[in-house]
From TrEMBL:
Source organism per UniProt: Dioscorea cayennensis subsp. rotundata (White Guinea yam)
Gene designation: LOC120276080
Protein name per the record: Uncharacterized protein LOC120276080
Listed Low complexity bias regions: 9-23
UniProt xrefs under PANTHER family: EXPRESSED PROTEIN, L10-INTERACTING MYB DOMAIN-CONTAINING PROTEIN-LIKE
Superkingdom, taxonomy of origin: Eukaryota
Pfam families the record matches: Myb_DNA-bind_3 (PF12776)
Length: 165
């Protein structure tokens, strides 16, 4: 059983389901989003990222993978919207990393602030709290998906070693 199958069998439900709100928008669960990020990073590794987007076969592959892994039906629009959400998250992380007074711990993949500065900053900017003084899960994979570059050998190794498959 390969890695994809092992992850899929642990996540699949017996019936196909969708996780949409009453407005029709898909609500991604944390495990779906994590799987999506890791799957899309594997698509970068396969050379299916072009410029700032993905080739159609990468989009169709993730649609099939989500159906197999979670039993959920996602559309191209759902994938496009989730990629946009992930890109916004990455833009916020990148902006925070570049701000004066922020430190970056490359080993822990963490934006670091002093306690007093953190407390004051989070009071004014509570939306940034999830990215401060906490390890940023899948940082390198997000960078590969959202950055302007194609995968390098270093990313390919990191993507494989952190992949659930």
């Amino acid at each position: 059983m390969d890695g994809y199958d092992a992850f899929e069998s642990s996540q699949a439900s017996s019936a196909m389901r969708t996780t949409t709100t009453t407005s029709g928008h898909k609500r991604w669960t944390p495990s779906e989003s994590r799987y999506f990020i890791r799957f899309m990073a594997s698509q970068v590794e396969e050379g299916l990222k072009v410029d700032k987007g993905f080739k159609p076969q990468a989009i169709h592959a993730v649609i099939r993978a989500m159906k197999q892994a979670f039993g959920v039906v996602v559309t191209e629009a759902n994938v496009s919207n989730h990629l946009r959400t992930i890109r916004r998250r990455w833009a916020r992380i990148k902006r925070l990393k570049e701000m004066s007074g922020m430190g970056w711990d490359n080993n822990l993949k963490m934006i670091v602030m002093g306690e007093a500065e953190y407390r004051d900053y989070v009071q004014i900017h509570p939306q940034d709290e999830p990215y401060l003084n906490k390890t940023i899960e899948d940082h390198d994979l997000l960078e590969a998906i959202c950055g302007n570059d194609q995968a390098t050998n270093g990313l390919q190794h990191r993507a494989r070693s952190s992949s659930p498959y």
